[in-house]
């Protein structure tokens, strides 16, 4: 099994072009499936649809959400398809299994005023504060995924024209514009703070940690939590919240749904449509608050 997992990892990385984060998620799901098979004394070569359904039942009985169960099914199906291709299995018993119905969650967002408080919280008189301000400004100005921002490299920025070349899921590239304020703080960070953080090393990544290396997901998570606290935002937020705010505030301002889809890098517009529900919910709350007969 270890050999098959190693080959599957190479397949996902090289042929499918998935990010390290996505590959790790697939492998984690498949390992969970393998442990289930071993525990129940099921042989992989004799696998049937029934055993895959039992695995899904095992996951949901353990309290797993339908969204997570669906993701596990996708991972397992991808793995079994890979085994068919490699000649280990004759067919993929997961192909005909219907994906568990997923209820789309309406993402939590901040108001424009709360975003303003969050972004302006860093002390820009320090190198770290200037870096943090540039990151928060750029995240809200572009709606990038956290992985996209942390993977951003200096040669993919055009500060004069105000756009970035972002490499998203599946190694797909897209051009994302950003505004004057984000550009201003990005320029200041690159000129004053980044050289000091870089120290003696060399890296193409834009945003660096205090050791001069690429900023990590955990590092940026802590940054967002820190400034949310300073901004007096009591609700729990995470880096992805700024992406949600970017999309929702654009749509609330009258932006076209297709344009927002392109900016976010969504392959399917139905993924973007969740933000229209957020705005409708906001309108309903305003109506209920101010209409005399609501």
Let me know the number of strands.
Answer: 3
Query: Helicity range of the residues?
Result: 55-70%
Mean pLDDT: 87
Principal-axis shape: globular
- Integer-rounded radius of gyration: 22 Å
CATH architecture of the largest domain: Orthogonal Bundle
Alpha-carbon distance between the termini? Answer: 61 Å
CATH superfamily of the largest domain: Intergrase catalytic core
Taken in chain order, the helices and strands follow as HHHHHHHEEEHHHHHH
Word description of this protein:
- The protein has 2 domains: 2-85, DNA polymerase, domain 1, CATH 1.10.150.130; 112-289, Intergrase catalytic core (hpI Integrase, Chain A, Orthogonal Bundle), CATH 1.10.443.10.
- The longest helix is centred in the first third of the chain and has 20 residues, at 20-39.
- Strands 1-2-3 form a 3-stranded antiparallel beta sheet, with no helix packed on it.
- The chain has 294 residues and is mostly helical.
- It has helices at residues 2-15, 20-39, 49-61, 66-85, 112-119, 127-142, 146-150, 180-198, 217-230, 239-252, 257-264, 269-272, 274-290, and strands spanning 157-158, 163-167, 173-177.
- It is globular and about 65 Å long.
């Amino acid at each position: 099994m270890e050999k098959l997992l190693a080959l599957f990892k190479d397949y996902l990385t090289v042929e499918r072009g998935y990010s390290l984060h996505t590959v790790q998620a697939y492998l984690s799901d498949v390992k969970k499936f393998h442990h289930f098979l071993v525990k129940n004394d099921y042989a992989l070569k004799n696998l049937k649809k029934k055993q895959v359904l039992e695995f899904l039942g095992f996951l949901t009985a353990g309290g797993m959400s339908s969204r997570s169960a669906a993701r596990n099914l996708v991972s397992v199906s991808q793995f079994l398809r890979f085994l068919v291709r490699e000649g280990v299995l004759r067919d993929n018993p997961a192909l005909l299994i219907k994906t568990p119905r997923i209820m789309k969650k309406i993402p939590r967002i901040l108001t424009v005023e709360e975003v303003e408080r969050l972004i302006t919280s860093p002390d820009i008189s320090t190198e770290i504060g200037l870096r943090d301000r540039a990151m928060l400004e750029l995240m809200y100005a572009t709606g990038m995924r956290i992985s996209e921002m942390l993977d951003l490299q200096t040669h993919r920025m055009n500060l004069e024209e105000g756009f970035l070349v972002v490499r998203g899921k599946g190694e797909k590239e897209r051009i994302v514009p950003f505004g004057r304020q984000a550009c201003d703080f990005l320029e200041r960070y690159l000129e004053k703070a980044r050289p000091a953080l870089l120290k003696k090393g060399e890296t193409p990544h834009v945003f660096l940690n205090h050791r001069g290396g690429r900023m990590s997901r955990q590092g940026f998570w802590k940054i967002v939590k820190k400034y949310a606290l300073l901004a007096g935002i009591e609700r729990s937020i995470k880096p992805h919240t700024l992406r949600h705010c970017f999309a929702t505030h654009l749509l609330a301002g009258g932006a076209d749904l297709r344009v927002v889809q392109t900016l976010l890098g969504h392959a399917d517009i139905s993924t973007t449509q969740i933000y229209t529900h957020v705005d409708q919910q906001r309108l309903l709350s305003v109506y209920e608050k101010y209409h005399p007969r609501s």
